[in-house]
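Let's practice the habit of predicting before peeking. Look at the sequence and jot down your guess about where helices and strands might fall. Then scroll down.
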Amino acid sequence: MTREIGSVIGGKEVPNGTAYDSINPAKVDEVVARVQLADAGTFSSACRTAAAAQKEWAAVPAPVRGRVIASIGRLVEANAEALARLVTREIGKPYAEALGEVREIIDTCDFFLGEGRRLYGQTVPSEMPDKNLFTFRVPVGVAAVITAGNFPVAVPSWYLVPALLSGNAVVWKPAEYAAASAEALYRLFAAAGLPEGVLNLVLADGQATFEGLETALGEGTVHKVGFTGSTEVGRRIGELCGRHLQSPCLELGGKNPMVVMPDADLDLAVEGALFAGFGTAGQRCTSLGTVIVHESVHDEFLDRYTRAVAEAVIGDPAGDVLCGPMLDHKFASRYEDYLGWIQPHHTVASGATGRITPDNARGDFSGEGGLYYHPVVVDGVRPDDRLFLEETFGPIVGVSTFTALDEAIELANRPGYGLSSSIYTTDPKSAFRFREGIGAGMVSVNNSTSGAEAHLPFGGNGKSGNGSRQSGVWVLDQFTRWQAMNWDYSGKLQKAQMDVAEVVPDLDFRL
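Done guessing? Here is the structure:
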């Protein structure tokens, strides 16, 4: 039977809402879950519930909150295969990748469980006698977390785990098309013993979420917004938060470049470009956008790359494949628009384009029943082309050439995104010059543009975000605020910068 799921606020299910079917994109006639989408009032109500629960949760000692995080990690690990299978079924991500995504939740919990004992402040020396200065990390309050569905469980954990560890309450709005995966993750978090109202799940569409968030910000029941999604929506959320003097944590899109130097190991570069360009069907924020390859190795690289793409297996995501289907009908439709950006001066080096069907098959694979698309490699992409400048969320990679490293860096920065980047070279000088010149928040050397580890900062600049970072200790700056305290035990009023002892030097002294 098809599962019926809805929002959970204060530990209680909210059964009413607008019906939405979350489908299996590998078998579009199969409904994974029937979702009850909430309205704007439900979202703002969840924020009020979270605000009421937050102070009690913040009063729980941080090391104890860390033990709750440890329990979440153990619960996810015990349910890893079931959760990964659900992710594969609901969004079409290959099972091996889905299992890796679940592993990332466990890694995140493993990292942060100890941070409950390391939410350090500092003791700071005062400029006056008989006075001590201190700093403390304090929770922001209520975090509204809005996440995309291409990483339906890993990316939410980057927000939820540190936010909860730091003593915040959370209202989480996942993507509708990944609602079943999100609801399963919510139940694992709840089983770890979180008090009711500390974590709330709201299933809603974008417009209802925006309206509910606007109300909550106006009421003062949301103190931090975390958003992962498109640059366009990120701008709207950034503007909304700015009106309320808040700085959101924005992790947005990317047009991630890979530079291939003349001394590169081409087999390694091809392997990286294959995974970065077409893993998860090119539907990662860190997916490869453009390969910028030196003119001296362009032809050889392109030949090897197109052969690797032709040999890659596309099909049922439950099997051993490079990629499965697009996430949902709306992404498939949008991807077909991107294919319209291919111009007469381009060369489609990979062969067929468009949806894989019995009439447009990929070898023996007809793609029947699913949202499968041919992987596309477009050569001859120019710096002013839409294919070069704009994010293309799907299995399409552009190829351009350069003559000198400075030109490659300029081309890599040109689209104005700044999430991830990569360079393949055996010359350390080239690697460090690239790192210094690239505007991306993340740089890989001889590795793909995709891939994150739980203890490194993740995030972008420019069109890819507002400089905020997720993962590692750096994300704690998103979910805590610094509080300064001074304690004067001199028994008198000492005025800073005024009642300071002065030591007079003899500046005319010479040897």
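How did you do? The chain has a mean pLDDT of 96.
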